[in-house]
Amino acid sequence: MDHSATDSETEDHGQPLLRQRSTGDIQKAPACCSSRYGLAFLSCYGFFVVYALRVNLSVAMVDMLKNHSSANASSSVCPHHSNPIPKHNYTASVYDWDSATQGWILGSFFYGYIFTQIPGGYLARKYGAKWLLGIGILCTVIFTLLTPLAADLGAGYLIAVRVLEGIGEGVSYPAMHAMWASWAPPLERSRLLTISYAGGQLGTVVALPLSGQICFYLDWTYVFYIFGAVGLVWFVLWTCFVSNSPSSHKRISEAERTYITSSLKNELSPTTDRIPWASIFKSMPLWAIVVAHFSFNWTFYTLLTLLPTYMNDILGFSIQQNGMLSAVPYLGCWCLTVMGGQLADLLRERFHFRTVVVRKAFTIVGMVGPAVFLVAAGYTNCDYFLAIAFLTISSSLGGISASGFNINHLDIAPSYAGVLLGITNSFATIPGMVGPVIARSLTKSNTIAEWRIVFYISAAINVFGAIFFTIFGKGTVQPWAVQ
Fold it and tell me: N or C: which end of the chain has fewer CB within 10 A?
C-alpha cells in the first residue's frame, strides 16, 4: 500500500472524520424549495451561459471561413454524407484565416481566463462572490455581443475581444467555489456542486447544435447575439435572488440557515483576513488536484474547441449536422455528472465510504475511461456511428470526475476553496491556451493519422493525472485550513 493511502486512512479515522460524521446528527433541512438548491439551479443556469458563450465560436468558426463551401465540404477525409438540404445562408462576412490563425483565435479566450483565476478566488473570499461572479459574466456577455464587429475589424481585434471575455469568465469557478464554502453542507457537496457545474455541460449540449442551426438558417453573427441575450436574462435573475451566504439571505428559512451553518462550523476558518499562502503552496494534496485538473482539461478543452472541426474535416458532416453531433458527447457528460454527484454523496452518507476513497475512485473512472475510448475513436476510420459512440462514451465518463478531484478543494480546505480553485484552474487553463494550437499544428493535412496523434497525447496526459491524484490526493480538512 502506498504511503499516501496510509496517510489518508489515518486522517479519515482521526478527528476530521468525526467532524464529518457529526454533521449527520444535525437536523437536515428539506431540499425541496430550499435556498441552497435554488442557488444550485441558478448557478447551473449561470454556468450554462458561461459555456454557451465559450463554445459558440467553435461552431461559428466553421462558417466564418472563406474556404467553407459546398465543394470544400465534400473534400473531407471521409465521404460527405448528408441529405439534400436548402441552400446555405451566406449573408454574413467570411474571412481568410489560415490554420494557425484559427488555432490562436480559438485559444485566445484562455489567455484572459488564466489572468483572473487566483485574484477571483481571493476577491470572492474577501468581498463576497455574488457581485464578482455576476459582473464577470456580464462583461463576457457584453464582449460576446461585440464579437461580429471585432471579426470584421480583423483577426487581431477578435483575439483581443476573446481575451477580454476570458478575463470576465475567469472569476466564475473560483467565486462559485468560494460561495459554496458557505452554502454547501459537507454531506451534500457532491450533489449541490455537480448540479451547479453541470450547467457547463448543459450549455455545451445546447450551444453546439443550436449554433449550427443558427448559422444555417440565419447566419453566424446571430450565434453571438442570441446567446448574449440569454446571458443578460441570467444576470437579472442572479442579482435579484442570490446572496453571498445563508446569514445574509432574505428568504431562507431559519431551519435551513441553522442546518447549513451548524454543519460547517467546525470546518471553516474563524477569520477571513489571513490566507496561509506558504502552507497552501506546500500542500501535496493541492498539487494532486493541480495535476489532475491540468490533465483532465487538456482533453476537455482540445475536444471542446476542435470537435466541430474534426466532424467537418474528417467525418464530413455539414454545418447543420456538425453542431448536433458535436453536442452528443457533452449530453452524456452532463447526465453522468449529475448522477455521479448523487452516487458520490450516497456512498459517503449512507454507506459510510471515506471521502478520499470516493474522490479517488471517481477520478480514476472519470479520467482513465475517457483516455481509453478517445484512443479507440482514432481507429474507427470512417465508421461514423462508432466514432460518435466512442467520443460520446469518452466525454460521458469524464463527467464522473466532477465528483472526484474537481470538488476536492472543499474537502481539504473549505475556507480557502475559492483561492485553491483559482490556483488549480490557473494551471488547468494552460491546456486551453496551448492545446488547440498544438492540435492544429499537428493536423495541418487533416488526416486521420494526424488526429490519432492528438488523441494519443490527450489520453496519455489524462492517465498520468489520474495516477498522480490517486497517489497524493486526500479527503479531509488539512490542519493549516482550520487554524
Answer: N
For 65, phi then psi, to 5°, come to -90, 140
Mean pLDDT, residues 119-139: 94
Cα 143 to chain center, whole Å?
20
Q: Is 65 helix (H, G, I), strand (E, B) or coil?
A: strand
| pLDDT of 6 | 38
DSSP string, 55-114: HHHHHHHHHHBTT-SHHHHTTSSSPP-----PPP---S--B---HHHHHHHHHHHHHHHG
Measured between alpha carbons, how far is 323 from 332 in angstroms, rounded to an integer? Answer: 15
- What three-state secondary structure class fits 87? coil
pLDDT band with cut points at 50, 70 and 90 for residue 483: low
Other CB atoms within 10 Å distance of the CB of residue 158 = 25
3-class DSSP state of 455? helix
Gap between the Cα atoms of 320 and 208, Å rounded: 10
SS3 call for 135: helix
Q: For 269-326, what is each residue's pLDDT tens digit? A: 665 568 899 999 999 999 999 999 999 999 888 887 778 778 888 888 776 677 778 7
Cβ distance 113 to 305 under 8 Å?
A: no
Amino acid in position 68: H
Residue given cell 448574449 in the structure block: 228
Contacts of 361 (CB under 8 A, 6+ apart): 404
- Grid cell of 303 as nine digits: 475536444
What is the CB neighbour count within 10 angstroms for residue 177?
A: 31
CA distances from 356 to 11, 265, 361, 403, 471 (A): 10, 21, 8, 11, 11
With beta carbons less than 8 A apart as the criterion, state whether 452 and 379 touch: yes
**Which of 332, 89, 336, 331 lies closest to 207, judged by CA?**
331
C-alpha cell at 27: 437536523
Compute the distance between CA of residue 331 and CA of residue 343 in angstroms, rounded to an integer: 18
CA distance 390 to 84: 27
pLDDT score, position 242: 95
* Predicted confidence (pLDDT) per residue in 340-389, tens digit: 999 999 999 999 999 999 999 999 999 999 999 999 999 998 888 898 89
Q: What is the distance between the alpha carbons of residues 415 and 30, in angstroms, rounded to a whole number?
A: 25
Can you read off the three cell numbers belonging to residue 210?
443550436
- End-to-end Cα, the chain, rounded Å: 31
